[in-house]
Amino acid sequence: MHIADAQREIRQTFQGGFAGQTVSGLLWLGSAAAATWGTPRLGILVLVVGGALIYPMTLLMLALMRRPVLIGRAIAAREAARGSAAAA
Fold first, then answer.
1. DSSP state of 38
2. 58 burial class (0-12, 13-18, 19+ CB within 10 angstroms)?
3. Confidence category of residue 79, pLDDT binned at 50, 70, 90
4. Chain-wide mean pLDDT for the chain?
5. Can you tell me the distance from the alpha carbon of 65 to that of 43, in angstroms, rounded to the nearest whole number?
6. Strand (E) positions, the chain?
7. What is the pLDDT of residue 16?
8. Contact status, residue 35 vs residue 28, Cβ threshold 8 Å
9. What is the rounded CA–CA span in Å between residue 31 and residue 20?
10. Longest dimension (CA), the chain
11. Residues 6+ away with beta carbon under 8 Å from 15
12. Is pLDDT larger for residue 13 or for residue 77?
C-alpha cells in the first residue's frame, strides 16, 4: 500500500476528521459548562478525563453512524485470524 492510499483510507474512515472534531468540540463545551456552573477544578477534570477518551468516543460515534471503524491492516489481520480459526 502506498502512502497516498493509506492517507485516503484514513480520511474516508474518519470522514475527514468530522467525528473526532465533533467529539473534541463537545468535550470542550462540557468542560466550559462544568467550569462555569461548577468549579474550575471540575472543568479541568472533565477536560483531562474526557481528553483520554476522545479516540474511543470517536470510534463509538463512527459505529453509531454505521461507519466502518477498522482500517486496512486491521481488517486484513481480522480476516487472517478468522481463516486460521476456520482451518483448525
1. S
2. buried
3. low
4. 84
5. 28
6. none
7. 82
8. no
9. 16
10. 59
11. 62, 67
12. 13
Q: Which residue has the cell 476456520?
A: 86
CB atoms within 10 A of CB 83: 10
C-alpha cell belonging to residue 14: 474518519
Q: Would you tell me how many other CB atoms lie within 10 Å of the CB of residue 48?
A: 10
Copy the grid coordinates of residue 30.
462540557
Give kind and range of the element (H or E) at residue 24: helix 18-37
Write out the three cell numbers for 76.
486484513
Is-contact 12 5, C-beta < 8 A? no
Written as one letter, the residue type at 42 is: L
Residue 58, C-alpha cell as written in the block: 470517536
* Span 24-66, pLDDT tens digits: 999 999 999 999 999 999 999 999 999 999 999 999 999 898 8
C-alpha cell of residue 48:
483531562
Q: Where are the domains positioned within the chain?
A: 3-87
